[in-house]
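Troubleshooting: if your tokenizer reports a length mismatch, compare your output against this known-good record of 56 residues.
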Amino acid sequence: MDAWCPIRVAFAAQVGLLSGRLAAVLRRSRRVSRALDCFSGTVFAGFAVRLAVVPK
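Known-good structure output:
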């Protein structure tokens, strides 16, 4: 066990707590939810165009 283990555990715990809080905020905000839907739709449409255009 090296000295970095407690730091890694503390970092992972903070990431978990912050991501849970961020998820709660994002679920409550209809505006943010709609923006994320538009963003992900644009990304998937871009992938579809790239897949259709790139030669095999």
